[in-house]
Amino acid sequence: MKIKAFTLAEVLITLGVIGVIAAITIPMLITKYQKFQTVTRLKGTYSQIAQAIRLSQDDNGDVEGWDLASADWFDRYLANYMKVTKARLKDLNEEGALVYKELSGNRETGFAIINNAVYGGATSYTLLNGVQLMVADTYRVQANSAGILIDINGAYTPPNKFGRDVFSFSVRNDYGFVPSGMYSTAECRVPAEGNPGRDFLKNGTCLRYGCNKESRGNWCAALIMMDSWQIAPDYPW
After folding, report:
1. What is the pTM (predicted TM-score) of this model?
2. Is 209 in contact with 186 (CB distance < 8 Å)?
3. Structural contact between residues 158 and 172, judged by C-beta atoms closer than 8 angstroms
4. Rounded CA gap, 198 and 224, in Å?
């Protein structure tokens, strides 16, 4: 009786095919998971800050009346309504300072919240899950607004790139807690308040804030929110 079996050549061919399929699909699955985690952590942090604002308004009045120009605004209005660990951020020129990248891949050196030497210093607030919030002490684009950077995996975990794990928001007297690019500021005007359009958020040229791989990526959170909390196929991942 003859026993049928695979030849060594057939086994090697089969393993080769499996290897090719794995090489194609595994990176795709990893990227899909990373995108899911990014949106999940960003949306969760957004909800946590929004909830802290709602709680704070019960004690401190409507956000419309908050003194966002003060250096201690975050401590006064939000820190007591969130479980955070507070620390000072080092200047860009100090040893061990944070290194952030634009979406283009270039080092980000101009953004006010992390450029202590020019804009007076900044403070970080770390949540229990490791998400880090960064707040400038004195720099304000305008008196009725204070910026917050959200680093979804902490400032000392890569890639530290805008649009990937770092996202730009602000608390405003007129609109509350909003992502950068959704409303006009003293720096940049949007086509329509609250709905500037995807093309503007992706390709807007004001201060190179657009969410594309040739720009800085500061408006990427607004793009994700406009896409119903999803990273769309044309997102510059």
Report:
1. 0.88
2. no
3. no
4. 10
Give, in order, the Cα–Cα distances in Å from 117 to each of 69, 90, 101, 106, 132: 19, 9, 18, 20, 21
Whole-Å CA distances, 194 to 39, 169, 178, 184, 190: 20, 13, 9, 9, 9
Give the C-alpha separation, 20 to 23, whole Å: 5
pLDDT score, position 27: 74
Model pLDDT for residues 183-227, shown as the tens digit of each residue: 999 999 999 999 999 999 999 999 999 999 999 999 999 999 999
d(CA 80, CA 82): 6
Q: How many CA atoms lie within 13 A of 180 on its CB side?
A: 30
3-state secondary structure 111-179: CHHHCHHHHCCEEEEEECCCCEEEEECCCCCCCCEEEEEEECCCCCCCCCEECCCEEEEEEECCCEEEE
Question: Strand pairing partners for 162?
Answer: 166
Residue with the two structure tokens 């408006």? 219
Of the chain, the percentage scoring pLDDT greater than 90 comes to 71
| Domain spans of the chain, in order of start | 8-172
